[in-house]
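Fold these two proteins, one after the other.
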Amino acid sequence: MPATIPSYPHDLFSDEVLLEPDEHYRALRELGPVVWLDAQQMYVLPRFEQVRDASRDSVTFCSGQGVGLNDLVNQAGAGTTLMSDGDRHDTQRKLLFGPLTPKALASIRDDVQDKADALIDDLVARGEFDGVTDLARALPLTVVPDLLGWPEDGREKLLPWAAATFDTLGPLNARAQQAVPRMMELLQFAATLGQSRDLAPASVGARILAAADRGEITLEQVPAMLVDYLAPSLDTTISAIGNALWLFAQHPDQWQTVRADPTLIPRAFNEVLRLQSPIRCFSRVTTTEVTIDGHRLPASARVVLHYASANRDERTFADPNRFDVQRSNAGSQLAFGVGTHTCAGQGLARVEAHALLTALAQRVDTITIDTPTKALNNLINAFAELPVTITAGPPPAPGKPASGSPDPGSSAEGQNAASTRTGS
């Protein structure tokens, strides 16, 4: 007999839950490996093993019918890299993210580190600043638009446009409905760029246009592919950097551990991603009836893969609510997805975050944060404001390196278990 699937009555996307989600995620995991969400009328997988396995099985859990939590955005995004499968997905992914391979990123690593060093030097001189506006946003807002070849005109709207994209990918609540006009404005601007070809030479945008000229994609696909690259590459990285700053302020002992041993930075960043996943969830649709740990799901069921809950699963991570920069299995976190739709832009996010953490570790002794303000977004877990005060100081004497094997997420091969999402 198939097991009865329990239901959860609370709306995971209400303001109250978005601001204080952890107990709700724990309650979901306690209910079982599959739960029915009354508010959204769809299933959710809240535990690590099931989210990982469903992510790897793109045939049974497909993205081609949309990964958002409402029909409007799934219809509008049909055929994008994020919402496609098979050969179409592979072709678009390779075109978009070919310049983001570890080898390609090596060519910009020094430049990104120089930018990070200059930024942190300025912030150390100031002493007080907003950790979101002045730090978390500063590097991605320079690096990502430049790589894409985005013109200077329109850059001032990139952050609200990106936030709107993730709001519309949630359930069609008031927040998502209010974001639709901004998302349409972004798509219209991208369409104008495709027609005017006002994208820098040798950029990702230029690659997309050249592929359209060769007939590999249609001109109609160009705007959505520009957005495919831009929005996720900004918001996820900004979220992760802001969350890192907040966690280190809350745990000064962990900050001093990293300062004493900067080789821990890749592992520490994975722990940030695990504990404060930038993207809460995406959805998939079952292509056939499937049984998950005795729970039978019908074909054509929409299933939410809840990365933020899975990354705190007690069955996988010991003492999961503890921030531990030396956690040996932090690299198995699912914040960047796993499988075919793993975040192809995660390498760039790591380059930016590692550069900032390295610059901070070399120069900053203490990090304190006054009352922070959370951003309310259906899918992005981020801060809106982080009033930061820092004091300068040289790094402490080198400490003993972390014991155990290297963190799987610290190398290109190990980024989320050598999988093949910033949303694609």
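Now the second one:
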Amino acid sequence: MPSGNACPRCGNAPLFDGYLKLKPACTACGLNYAFADSGDAPAVFIMLGGGAFIVGLALFLEVNYAPPIWLTMAICLPLGAVMCLGLLRPLKAAMIHRQYATKAEEARHKS
């Protein structure tokens, strides 16, 4: 089974050509990545999950310790940014792997 940041077919070549930009094709097996379109789903899932976690953490800190607002923001904002940016690439790769595994493609309607 290929690793998260590798080609979904062979697992030998990197999937990304930057932080989030996909390569046009696999350099090892030649798989064209034109099928790969994760859209906004990774960002939405991370914003919803990460946002709920950060808001929960901020509420926990406020209720239990009542720190100044600057301290809560100094803890929660960088943690939220690091968490969201850290999870974005792996989740995008996982969605592309699922698209390949399930042969997902655009719907085609007969006219």
